Amino acid sequence: MLDVRNVSASYGAIQALQNVSLQVPRGEIVALLGSNGAGKSTTLNAISHLIEPSAGEIRFDGELISRAPSDDIVRRGLVQVPEGREVFKDMSVRENLELGAFLRKSARKEIADDFERVYTMFPRLKERSEQRASTLSGGEQQMLAIGRALMARPRMILLDEPSMGLSPLLVEQIFEIIQRLNREQGLTILVVEQDVRLALRVSTYAYILENGEMNLHGASKDLLNDPAVRRAYLGV
Ligand SMILES: Nc1ncnc2c1ncn2[C@@H]1O[C@H](COP(=O)(O)OP(=O)(O)O)[C@@H](O)[C@H]1O
Ligand SMILES: [Mg+2]
């Protein structure tokens, strides 16, 4: 469903990505791993065309999207949940969700259905729909950021460190939701995660970036048992 080929990107003189390739099959959860500064967010931002890659090609559903504007990419059904959630703190939960449906403003009935779907998935957001987003806990803000992405009716989402700053219990809850979205709604997911063990447990396939280059990749269950991965990333 997503095919990233030989993508490079830089910020001025800093080369952030070099020849990065990855594939995400339809209906699967794929993990993108690597330490701080490895280029994970840059990879997602290149896919969403929030930054301009200097080389490479990106295809979604077989169509070239690397030159498409980012709103067009959202319209095609590929939606990013940014690092640090980036919800609009002064707006209510409901208003934040409405913004997720911004590109489909005309379809009132559909949007009402989507509110129902998101509120069923996240009852906590329903209870707090008129509350300002700034008053939500970190975990609730992450739910809101995911809910906002779902309002765009995505077929695939890019999740950038959904567990950042959350307690272990909340991380478990967020990942349960991620797995449910995949299982129950068939959502294809590319998830960036620092907790390598957790990410390998929930994904079918994983890629590990190091210094802007793809260091290794493989089926998640193989990586979990790979001695080199266990030494370098799992502290075993
Ligand atoms: N806006 C920016 N301007 C300059 N350098 C950046 C910018 N964003 C990221 N970088 C650099 O690019 C590299 C990759 O960053 P990033 O993709 O954010 O890593 P990760 O998400 O894996 O932690 C890092 O060296 C980082 O310092
Ligand atoms: Mg990042």
UniProtKB/TrEMBL annotation:
A Pfam match: ABC_tran
Gene3D superfamilies, per database record: P-loop containing nucleotide triphosphate hydrolases (3.40.50.300)
Domain of life of the native organism: Bacteria
Q: Name one GO biological process term.
A: L-amino acid transport
Instruction: Say yes or no: keyword Membrane present.
Output: yes
List residues of the ABC transporter domain: 2-236
Tell me which UniProt keywords the record has, alphabetically. Amino-acid transport, ATP-binding, Cell inner membrane, Cell membrane, Membrane, Nucleotide-binding, Transport
GO function term, MF aspect, one: ATP binding
Q: Which InterPro entries match?
A: AAA+_ATPase, ABC_branched_ATPase_LivF/BraG, ABC_transporter-like_ATP-bd, ABC_transporter-like_CS, BCAA_Transport_ATP-bd_LivF, P-loop_NTPase
* Family membership noted in the UniProt record: Belongs to the ABC transporter superfamily.
Q: What is this protein called?
A: ABC transporter ATP-binding protein
According to the entry, what is the taxonomic lineage of the organism? Bacteria, Pseudomonadati, Pseudomonadota, Betaproteobacteria, Burkholderiales
